Amino acid sequence: MSTAPPPADETPRRRWLRRRAQPATAETPAGGDEAAPVAADAPAPAEDGQPTEVVAAPARQEGPRQLRRRREQLLTEREETVYHLGGLAFELYRRDRLSDEVMRLRAGHVAQLDDEVRDIDARLSDVERERRERRVRSPADPSVGCCLVCRTPFRAEARFCWQCGTRLVPDTVGDEQPTAVIPTPPPA
Questions:
Q1: DSSP 135
Q2: In the 8-state DSSP scheme, what is residue 114?
Q3: What distances in angstroms separate CA 98 from CA 72, 81, 85, 114, one per listed residue?
């Protein structure tokens, strides 16, 4: 088996990427070759004579994850650009070819990267502010517990369940444990 390329007069054969024959429609005959190709972006007229167009979907906003990733890419690119700017300036100075035009062009690229990073930072801070606003905590629930009989929540100051009337606060009139009094010795 030879690995030499085919001669120039022979056309190479594609075995793997063959097109399937398309079924015949009203617009194209069965052969498909006789019809002139229609431009893909040309609007086709509707039944009422009005052209119909494909409307592109609105651009999707980048999420915080994509913004942070783009920010890191820009900072890396900026770091490399500043590094190469210093090397370029030194080499041009060494060869006595340092001009303001070259340095301004390169410094302008660094300034453009800085502006993009600031824009992303502002967008990220807006996203973070919106998140904080969504996370505003509702006031604490004033209920302390639930009634043991009907499981209705009650507030801290309640003495009776408002649903079933059960006493919530135990009687504190009598203490089952005797209180011992510790005598203090008289001052000497």
A1: T
A2: H
A3: 31, 17, 12, 24
CB 70 within 8 A of CB 76: no
Domain boundaries, the chain: 64-133
H and E: helices and strands count for the chain: 2, 4
d(C-alpha 62, C-alpha 67), whole Å: 6
| Residue 73 CB neighbour total at 10 angstroms | 11
Q: pTM of the entire structure? A: 0.42
Q: Which pairs from 121-128 meet CB under 8 Å and 24+ separation?
A: 121/71, 123/67, 124/64, 124/67, 124/68, 124/71, 127/64, 127/67, 128/64
Render each residue's pLDDT in the chain as its tens digit; 188 residues: 555 555 555 555 555 555 555 555 555 555 544 444 555 555 555 566 666 777 776 666 778 899 999 999 999 999 999 998 888 888 888 888 888 888 888 889 999 999 999 999 999 999 999 988 888 766 666 667 888 899 888 888 888 898 899 888 777 666 567 777 788 888 87
Alpha carbon of residue 184 to chain centroid: 72
